[in-house]
């Protein structure tokens, strides 16, 4: 659950930054959010979740 919340906060932060800089229009942001909600309801959702979790595990194991 912590990984999911962290990813959501990161994506929300990036969306706000892009909207403030004019690189992401409000309509584009709405389409991105809707795409995320629709993907969450498909059979691809577990695969996406596993990929994000694996990537987070690899990144957390890296030492600077």
From TrEMBL:
User: What is the designated name of this protein?
Assistant: Uncharacterized protein
Its lineage opens with: Bacteria, Bacillati, Actinomycetota, Actinomycetes, Kitasatosporales
What organism does the record attribute this protein to?
Answer: Streptomyces termitum
